[in-house]
């Protein structure tokens, strides 16, 4: 597990040669605007593999790295980007058989300054996602971009905690709603750490999803006292009706976000789908805990 032990060539089952003994990963930094998303692109140095083409900051994974840590390291080495300024929202796996490339999609709150930090690139530029095809793209990126492009819009999970707790039917939950809510929040936080893998009808497929999560608690469950949670998970105590609070959360999502409400309540389903949200039942979430 030595540093840079991933450097080297590998051949995939398709018969192609790729850089990265243990596979490779790249960072797709996205900044969303009302006019559409912008992505940070790297122009590769002439001497590198497919030199002169545009692709993602990235490179070979070391044996001890996961895809996210590898992509963030490479982005720091090549573009001086700092991971603290990015929020990872998903990972897309392009598996060639015997070699794979992970595209780590991360949201940037602004058009972060980036410039070549080593000799592997000659330029870095924020480019409109709708105009990427005007560039001479790295062949691997050009092949996967049509599949990755639909996945870059963030998803916001909105949890109807009362409904999910009821569906879970944990023994005695109705006598200690705060305790039941605390236990569920801890498990959801752990899931947020791991990433969600079950696909969602109506959303493009992605290997791991790291959404922003809003857990709405009401009544006695507002007294829940969970330990520190994953930063992507926020708890919203409803001042009155939990359904009304969920509707307001859905109404407040940004134009480029898609709300996914977890509930089996038919009345709430009708209200939020009327606002453009998707809905899945509690079993979708519970099966991943």
UniProtKB/TrEMBL annotation:
State the UniProt keywords alphabetically: Hydrolase
Specify the Nudix hydrolase domain's residue ranges.
Answer: 20-150
Q: Which cofactor does it need?
A: Mg(2+)
Entry-linked InterPro entries: NUDIX_hydrolase-like_dom_sf (IPR015797), NUDIX_hydrolase_dom (IPR000086)
The record's section on Gene3D superfamilies has: Nucleoside Triphosphate Pyrophosphohydrolase
Q: Does the keyword Glycosyltransferase apply?
A: no
Spell out the molecular function terms from Gene Ontology: hydrolase activity
**UniProt entry tagged with the keyword Cell cycle:** no
Enumerate the PANTHER family for this protein: 8-OXO-DGTP DIPHOSPHATASE-RELATED, GDP-MANNOSE MANNOSYL HYDROLASE
The entry's protein name is NTP pyrophosphohydrolase
The uppermost taxa in this organism's lineage are: Bacteria, Bacillati, Actinomycetota, Actinomycetes, Streptosporangiales
């Amino acid at each position: 597990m030595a540093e840079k032990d991933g450097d080297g060539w590998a051949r995939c089952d398709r018969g192609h040669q790729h850089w990265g003994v243990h596979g490779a990963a790249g960072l797709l930094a996205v900044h969303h605007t009302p006019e559409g998303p912008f992505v940070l692109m790297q122009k590769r140095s002439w001497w590198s593999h497919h030199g002169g083409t545009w692709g993602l900051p990235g490179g070979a994974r070391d044996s001890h790295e996961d895809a996210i840590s590898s992509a963030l390291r490479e982005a720091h080495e090549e573009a001086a980007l700092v991971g603290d300024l990015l929020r990872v929202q998903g990972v897309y796996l392009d598996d060639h058989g015997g070699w794979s490339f992970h595209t780590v999609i991360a949201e940037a709150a602004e058009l972060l300054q980036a410039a070549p930090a080593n000799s592997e690139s000659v330029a870095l530029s924020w480019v409109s996602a709708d105009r990427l095809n005007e560039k001479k793209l790295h062949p691997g990126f050009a092949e996967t971009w049509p599949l990755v492009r639909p996945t870059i819009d963030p998803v916001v999970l909105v949890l109807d905690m009362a409904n999910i707790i009821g569906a879970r039917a944990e023994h005695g939950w109705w006598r200690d709603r705060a305790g039941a809510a605390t236990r569920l929040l801890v498990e959801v936080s752990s899931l947020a750490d791991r990433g969600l893998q079950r696909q969602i009808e109506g959303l493009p497929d992605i290997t791991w999803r790291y959404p922003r999560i809003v857990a709405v608690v009401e009544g006695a469950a507002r007294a829940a006292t969970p330990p520190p949670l994953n930063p992507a998970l926020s708890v919203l105590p409803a001042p009155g009706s939990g359904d009304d609070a969920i509707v307001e959360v859905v109404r407040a999502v940004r134009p480029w976000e898609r709300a996914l409400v977890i509930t089996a309540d038919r009345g709430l389903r009708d209200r939020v789908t009327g606002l453009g949200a998707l809905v899945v039942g509690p079993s979708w979430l519970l099966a991943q805990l």
